[in-house]
């Protein structure tokens, strides 16, 4: 049997962080890039604690201090998807996948 048939795969959304800008380009819009993990403030703003975030395989970057609203919203949507699977009591176990860039 293949492993794809035995479980439901949910991908953890990737965190977004601002790009670093050299001093000579000050004032130019930086944009976003994929970060290493979510900051502790973003996890708490989404209504999670660190223990549950680690259990759900959510990447955490303890060095980051910034809180981006896009990351908080993506975490909230992820939590809703996971809650629906738990409440549905599916016969197939759920598998949470972490995608790395």
Structure explained in plain terms:
- By secondary structure, the chain is of the alpha+beta class.
- It has one domain.
- It has 3 helices and 4 strands.
- It has helices at residues 40-45, 50-55, 69-88; strands spanning 8-11, 16-18, 32-34, 94-97.
- The strands form 2 sheets. The chain has a two-stranded parallel ribbon. The protein has a two-stranded antiparallel sheet with strand order 2-3.
- The longest helix is centred in the last third of the chain and has 20 residues, at 69-88.
- It starts with 7 loop residues before the first strand and ends with a strand.
- The mean pLDDT is 79.
Layout of secondary structure:
Elements (H helix, E strand, L loop, with lengths): L7 E4 L4 E3 L13 E3 L5 H6 L4 H6 L13 H20 L5 E4 L4
Parallel strand pairs: 1-4
Antiparallel strand pairs: 2-3
CA-based gyration radius: 16 Å
Helix fraction bin: 25-40%
Number of helices: 3
Strand order of the largest sheet: 1-4
- Our count of domains comes out at 1
Largest sheet: 2 strands, parallel
Quick overview:
The protein has three helices and four strands, in the order βββαααβ.
Descriptive keywords:
alpha+beta; two-stranded parallel ribbon; 3 helices; elongated; 101 residues; 4 strands
């Amino acid at each position: 049997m293949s492993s794809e048939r035995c479980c439901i795969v949910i991908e953890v959304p990737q965190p977004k962080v601002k790009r670093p800008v050299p001093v000579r380009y000050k004032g130019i819009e930086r944009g976003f890039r994929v970060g290493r993990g979510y900051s502790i403030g973003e996890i708490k703003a989404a209504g999670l604690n660190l223990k549950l975030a680690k259990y759900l395989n959510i990447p955490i970057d303890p060095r980051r201090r910034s809180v981006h609203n896009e990351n908080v919203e993506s975490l909230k949507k992820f939590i809703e998807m996971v809650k629906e699977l738990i409440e549905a009591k599916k016969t197939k176990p759920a598998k949470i996948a972490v995608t790395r860039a």
